[in-house]
Amino acid sequence: MSKLGKPIRVKLTEVFLLVSALVFAVNIYLFYIQNKAIRQIDGVYSHNIQLNDLSGALGGMQDALYQYLNTKSSDMMESYYTYEQDYREMMGQLNTGTVSEPDKLMEKNIYYMSEAYLEEASQAIEAKRGRNVSRYNEGYGRADEIYGYLQSCIHSTNNTVFLNNSHNYSLLRAKLGRMVWLSLALLLAVMLLAVAWVVAMTGRVTKPLKELADAANEIARGNMEVDFPEVVTEDEIGTVSKACNKMIESIRVHIQETKENYERENKLVEKELIMKNDLKEAQLKYLQAQINPHFLFNSLNAGAQLAMMEGAERACVFIENMADFFRYNVRKTEQDATLEEELRLVDNYIYILNVRFAGDIHYESRVDRRLLHTPMPSMIIQPLIENAVNHGIREMEGAGRICLSVYRKGDMACIQVEDNGKGIDAQIAEKILRGESAHSESGRDSAGIGMDNVISRLRRYYDMEHVIDIKRRKEGGTEVALYLKIPKGGTDDADFNL
Fold first, then answer.
1. Rounded to whole angstroms, what are the CA distances from 251 to 31, 129, 164, 231, 238?
2. SS3 for 55?
3. Which of 469, 476, 477, 473 is nearest to 391 (CA)?
4. Phi and psi at residue 123, in whole multiples of 5°?
5. Which of 253, 261, 255, 250 is nearest to 222 (CA)?
6. What is the pTM of this model?
7. 81, 139, 271, 494: which one has the fewest Cβ atoms less than 10 Å from its Cβ?
8. In a structure prediction context, what are the per-residue pLDDT tens digits for the chain, which is 498 residues long?
9. How far apart are CA 115 and CA 177, in angstroms?
């Protein structure tokens, strides 16, 4: 078996991961350069925002100083110190080094003027606390003067910085616009490359699959001469293609073998039918050579009439029962019967047996007449009576008794035959129920074969397994029960007959 290459799942996964990684890397790069440009734009006016905040904190501090000096309110004092703290933090961001740029020099001047302003304001507050009116008025006047210079310097510096930043902002906006278009173009190129790659990959996968599907459709339409395309890839599709070609070849061989077997079976069936026809013809000729049934019935009827004319009534009755028994056997062998017809045959058979055995068989029946019209296979009950006589009471000392009962059990008609003979062994009963021949075919011991026939016919007729029970009676003898299905509406309201 050839070693498989990369499975389709692995190939598709690799394509997906590579495309995803490429798109992700491009997005990361674009995100980085765009964020960098945005940070530069944000930083353009950060200096202006810083100067505005510085001016606002200075104005708040000046207002709080003025209110405190006029009212000496502790709230104004607290507000002043809050503004002072914020202002000093903002001063720490101003340039104090030696530089040559005008705006940086202006920041340095603002820083030192702020120091002077804070010093004058602090002295005015101390004078106010000491209630030195002339001193805090002077201190406030100098602080207010410095405050005016400071605000003027801050505004001037802010305007200068704003003009410079406006030019930088325009350049950055133009740069950001170019970056946006570059990003869109790059993303579009990556997406087109990814789509082309995926289409090419899926095309290599789906093309052989489509060819396999077309071949399969041709085969489904009955064209068994089509071969599956050979796929050179060492993946699942190649394996499926090779397996399909082996399968279609096996199917062709199997179809050819099936045709040959069918032709041979047809010939055998034809020969078997010819043999059966020959056998039936031979059997018919054999039976015709032995005796003609109509001749037998006519002869028995003639004998019965002769016996009646001579006054031999018992002989007449015997011959009539014999004629009825054989007539039923010939006519009903391949036909269905009713329970009433089967019971009438049993009566004929019991009469014949009692003539043979000098009346040693005592027979009684208990029949629910509502079940007499129940349909059943023919020649079913008589083998039970024969079996009871041959293997139950024939060799026993004393009078033999056979009791036949017909009664309803649920939706079944139960036919129960009991005898007082020697009884049946459990092993023999099990063999009969399993459909095995319980007796030899020699001599008169043919009841086992008859029971097999009864059980088999009942099971086929009613299409159920449980059709018979066989057991040894505690008081001696054997009890056999047959079960017949009662058709719906198959019973009438006749009385129960003993």
1. 61, 116, 88, 21, 20
2. helix
3. 477
4. -65, -35
5. 255
6. 0.41
7. 271
8. 344 556 767 767 777 777 778 777 877 877 777 777 667 666 656 777 777 888 888 888 888 888 888 887 888 888 888 888 888 888 877 777 776 777 777 778 888 888 888 888 888 888 888 777 788 788 888 888 888 888 888 888 878 777 776 766 677 677 767 777 877 787 788 778 878 877 777 777 677 777 777 777 777 777 767 666 666 666 666 677 677 777 767 777 777 788 888 888 888 777 667 655 644 554 444 444 444 454 455 556 655 665 666 666 666 666 666 666 666 665 555 567 899 999 998 998 888 888 777 667 889 999 999 999 999 888 889 889 988 888 888 777 777 899 999 999 999 999 999 998 888 888 888 888 887 754 434 334 443 347 888 888 888 888 889 999 999 988 888 999 999 999 886 655 444 444
9. 44
What is the amino acid identity at position 266? N
Burial class of residue 343 (count of CB atoms within 10 Å of its CB; 0-12, 13-18, 19+): middle
The DSSP secondary-structure symbol of 97 reads S
Distance CA 33, CA 41 (A): 12
On whether the CB atoms of residues 50 and 93 are closer than 8 A, the answer is yes
In a 3-state reduction of DSSP, which class is residue 430? Answer: helix
